[in-house]
Automatic annotation (TrEMBL):
Family: Belongs to the thiamine-monophosphate kinase family.
Catalytic reaction(s) noted: thiamine phosphate + ATP = thiamine diphosphate + ADP
Metabolic or biological pathway, per its Swiss-Prot or TrEMBL entry: Cofactor biosynthesis; thiamine diphosphate biosynthesis; thiamine diphosphate from thiamine phosphate: step 1/1
Gene name of the encoded protein: thiL
Role, per record: Catalyzes the ATP-dependent phosphorylation of thiamine-monophosphate (TMP) to form thiamine-pyrophosphate (TPP), the active form of vitamin B1.
Protein name according to UniProt: Thiamine-monophosphate kinase
Binding annotation for substrate: 74, 284, 328
Name of a matching Pfam family: AIRS
Occurrences of domain PurM-like N-terminal (ranges): 49-159
Organism: Amycolatopsis marina
């Protein structure tokens, strides 16, 4: 029987990290260290731990989220046009709003860059940011520009819940249906192609350059009664792991329900890679994953990929634990 095993992540360190460093803590251990033991003001309706926070103002609520993108880590200037990078930086944030069931309203953009950076490059990048924001009927309302050794983009997005409660990571219940909306594995396939020096097939390469999240699918899922939701940034299994932990449930993914597009199969064959591994553990497509009560009708574009199980079984694939990395983790 297959264990869906995967080799060690490319570039992964074989030596163990020095104790006390972020590499030793791990990305999520670090976040725990930085967030625990803090008392939030009463205006914080939902604090750290989800795709976005919810804050109260005396005349309403705002959903807020932020993500940082670093040259060489999240994008390369020789792999992407500036417009692509701008689109990606905004899209990854708007996907977090959608994963709460919110509609984007506004974007704030921090840009750090070296002195030799071409102004025209940043103008083109900003065109991409505006194009992506406008796709979601949002605008760029402010930001900051500072000097740095490499290009760093810090984007904050604000959204509107339309009077509904946020859809958190913690509401999945045993018996719910696990579903996704959007593509999986495409950006990872594109990363493999670009990493080997190729620029085609353009479908997967463009998927790595910028995601095209179905923003309206988040609010639609909320209206349809979604019990929990997350966007897939690090990898399906990794992000479902956050949802399972927050909800204290098991999640079983049935691979027969997953689409492995023929284009991914072809790229996998050409590169000697397993396309199912891209689908299960590749990040950056920003599909939405959500759970729905079994009696709910799934909104348009959503497809069942598994089921929610009784507590504490973690994430399984066809009923078995997954061997190998479940997705991207910084410093691993
Ligand atoms: N330095 C920090 N201080 C407070 N909260 C943080 C910090 N870094 C991350 N968080 C919070 O930790 C949670 C998990 O962050 P994470 O970045 O994994 O989520 P995400 O943005 O949905 O995923 P991704 O960054 O992969 O797109 C979020 O609620 C985030 O706001
Ligand atoms: C040059 C280059 N090298 C590697 C990758 C792959 N990558 C980087 S960050 C990430 C997960 C999401 O990031 P975050 O968790 O910060 O949102 C992935 C899959 C890339 N896109 N570009
Ligand atoms: Mg997210
Ligand atoms: Mg983040
Ligand atoms: Mg991440």
């Amino acid at each position: 029987m297959s264990t869906h095993g995967r080799p060690q992540q490319e570039g992964a360190r074989s030596d163990s990290p020095r104790p006390g460093t972020v590499a030793a803590a791990g990305e999520f251990g670090l976040i725990r260290t930085l967030t625990r033991g803090r008392t939030q003001p009463s205006t914080t309706l939902l604090g750290p731990g989800d795709d976005a926070a919810v804050v109260a103002a005396s005349d309403g609520r705002v959903v807020a989220t932020t993500d940082v993108l670093v040259q060489g880590v999240h994008f390369r200037l020789d792999w992407s046009d500036p417009e692509h990078i701008g689109r990606k930086a905004v899209a990854v944030n708007l996907a977090d709003l959608a994963a709460m069931g919110a509609v984007p309203t506004s974007v704030l953009v921090g840009i750090a860059c070296p002195p030799e950076t071409e102004t025209t490059m940043l103008a083109a990048l900003t065109d991409g940011m505006w194009a992506e924001a406008e796709r979601a009927r949002a605008g760029i309302i402010g930001g900051d520009v500072v000097g740095a050794d490499q290009l760093v983009l810090s984007v904050t997005a604000l959204g509107d819940l339309g009077g509904r409660p946020p859809v958190t990571r913690s509401g999945a219940r045993p018996g719910d249906v696990l579903a996704i909306c959007g593509r999986l594995g495409w950006a990872a396939a594109g990363l493999a192609v670009l990493g080997r020096g190729f620029r085609s097939p353009v479908g997967v390469v463009n998927a790595q350059r910028y995601p095209e999240p179905a923003y309206q699918a988040g609010p639609a899922a909320a209206i349809a009664g979604a019990t929990s939701m997350i966007d897939v940034s690090d990898g399906l299994l990794a992000d479902l792991g956050h949802l399972a932990a927050a909800s204290e449930v098991g999640l079983d993914v049935q691979t027969a329900r997953l689409t492995v597009d023929q284009r991914l199969v072809d790229v996998g064959t050409a590169l000697g890679a397993d396309p199912l591994r891209w689908v299960l553990t590749g990040g950056e497509d920003h599909a939405l994953a959500a759970t729905f009560p079994s009696y709910a009708d799934l909104p348009e574009g959503w497809v069942q990929i598994g089921t929610v199980l009784l507590p504490d079984t973690g994430v399984t694939v066809d009923g078995m634990p997954y061997e190998g990395d479940s997705g991207w983790e910084h410093w691993r």
